[in-house]
Amino acid sequence: MIGINDVVNEAIEKCNSALSLVSEANALLSGNAAGNGVVFSQSHCDLLIERGFMCIFEALESYMERVFICYMLGKTGINGNAVNRYVFPLNEEHAEKMLRGKDKYMDFTSRVIIDTYAENFFEGRGPFTFLDGVSQDFEDMKKIRNRISHVSLKSQREFESLVRSRVSFLPTNVSVASFLMTFVPRQRTTFFAYYLDVTKGIINAIANPVN
After folding, report:
1. What is the pLDDT of residue 101?
2. What pLDDT, on the 0 to 100 scale, is given for residue 105?
3. Which phi and psi (to 5°) does residue 35 adopt?
4. pTM exceeding 0.70
5. Crossing angle for the helix pair 4-30 and 42-72, nearest 10 degrees?
6. Which residues, listed in sequence order, are joined to residue 190 by a DSSP beta bridge?
């Protein structure tokens, strides 16, 4: 099993690649890029922005699973601190079975389930208590992800409610991409950059447990 450093570096690299994807998409759009008679349109750009966000969310989801297993196996954080654990799995596969329990899949997109995992396996929930301070952002990211990957009325309503809560009104024909490229009120950063920073903050905080 690789160590925490490797898990962190891989997640951060995926986040940086997502940022590059979105930056390049916007550059192509603003530069009126075209080739073989095809013009790079707003629709193309929007798809890449959505894909960039999904890459960030997937990187966080994968990171959470892998860092859980690392701590279950007794790995120390980047700062050298260990996490007091209640379980002592024999290997990575054994740790995965403990996490999964009777479920078919592990779910690292739900705060409730993550908290349950943390309570079951680590004293005081270990470094995963950090999520308490970013709970709303974590839930918002999941709603955005659901709006991209699902076409249900529920995902649409939840996304529109999120937009209203963040910008105080619902823009006409708002899309995930247009929202992510909107500037956070009273800040000089887009929502895409904001959630990227939230993700990196989670990654770094959990990788450096406080004793």
Report:
1. 83
2. 80
3. -165, 135
4. yes
5. 170
6. 183
